[in-house]
């Protein structure tokens, strides 16, 4: 139908400066597939050029103007018609007129604020993209190009360990501890579980990483729970006084930083779920929220143009290593073997939406007991009717 004037008579190509050497990141698409996009950070300039070529040499393209936009957008899958834009920058590339030859337009969005990380979940998508529009009377010609954005964080100054005692009435009393409450995406979770009282026949124990995605507000709130990883830490029946070590490497899993109330539209939180199963297949669990963050991995390459510069670079490197060693000697190292803490409590308030009815470690509790109950999954046992009394 192009001879009636309805077809696209021009092709648009968006070229970004330095795209041959710029780092890329893998981003999940809406249909579950993955694609590699050019990676940018908050405050970085986004620049390049727009190449517009006519499909038929010698033809003429009439337009009402050409513009490029840099857009940051949140899309709720349950509300496809409304896109929430938290960034919208526009630059005019050409005034209304006629295009008679291939044309290239440079553009630059200087020091663009990119406050959130790209994300594609079960019910929401956050994306950044460039959009070029050739405005025409009947049908615009549009081209979009997505980019990836990562949000880097510095190492938390306060990163207390998580300690808690949990139990099942008078049948089980265990104490668990994780070395930190905040982990970067390539970190290792180190911990230990100590059995103080064992009066039930435990078959095995596992720890899982659960992602909770919450979208919308009020009556339009949707929650999606996804088990990212499941790791068996014990097989067999423990005895009183036995301890079980925990070591989970996060680098092998698809994780994102923790996102809290992003633009008042959605949140992404992570939990460590400790699960026990007895010989009658009854499952008991206790969840603890952790914070995940992205650590910067930029490495400066030394300038080796001369021996003097090389020597200076080596000295700086040695100085940095000494400084790091001094800092490490001042900060407590992650515990490999944890000490027992009979009355220990979590340093952060546990607001556990999965675990209704369980008190937070910071909430008031009877002075004679600091043990929190583990929750049993309903309908999981073979003899539920006999054990509900």
Describe what you observe in this structure:
- With 389 residues, the chain is mostly beta strands.
- The protein contains one helix and 24 strands.
- It has one helix spanning 307-330, and strands spanning 10-16, 24-28, 34-41, 46-54, 61-63, 66-76, 83-94, 97-99, 103-109, 119-120, 124-134, 141-150, 162-168, 172-178, 182-184, 188-198, 202-215, 222-235, 243-249, 259-262, 266-278, 283-293, 372-373, 375-376.
- The longest helix has 24 residues, at 307-330.
Write a concise synopsis of the structure shown.
With 389 residues, the protein is mainly beta. The protein is 6% helix and 47% strand.
Keywords:
disordered N terminus, disordered C terminus, about 400 residues, about 5% helix, seven-stranded mixed beta sheet, mainly beta
Number of helices: 1
SSE ordering: EEEEEEEEEEEEEEEEEEEEEEHEE
Helix content: under 10%
Number of strands: 24
Largest sheet, in brief, is: 7 strands, mixed
Using the CA coordinates, give the radius of gyration: 28 Å
How far apart lie the N and C ends?
Answer: 75 Å
Quickly give the structural class: mainly beta
